[in-house]
Amino acid sequence: MSEGRAYIRLAPHEERVFSISRLLRSTAGLDPLAAFRGNHSQFQVMQEVRRRLRKYRDLRVSVRNVTGFNIGGGSFDIDFVLRGPDLKALSTYAESLRDRQESLGLLDADTTLRLDKPELRVEIDRARAADLRVDPERVGTAIRLLVGGDEEVSRFKDPSNNEDYKVALRLREEDRADPATIGRLVVSREGGGVAPLESVARIDRVPSASRIDRLDRQREVRLRASVAPGFAMADRLAALRAAVGAMNLPAAYTTRVSGRGRELERTFGEFVWAFALSIVFMYMILASQFENLVHPCTILLSIPLCVPFALLSIWLMGNTLNLYSALGILVLFGVVKKNAILQIDHMNNLRAGGMDRASAILQGNRDRLRPILMTTLTFVAGMLPLAVGSGPGAEERRVIAVVVIGGQTLSLLLTLLATPVVYSLLDDLALAFGRRKGFAIRSLFWWNGRR
Question: Percentage of the chain surpassing pLDDT 70?
Answer without folding.
Answer: 91
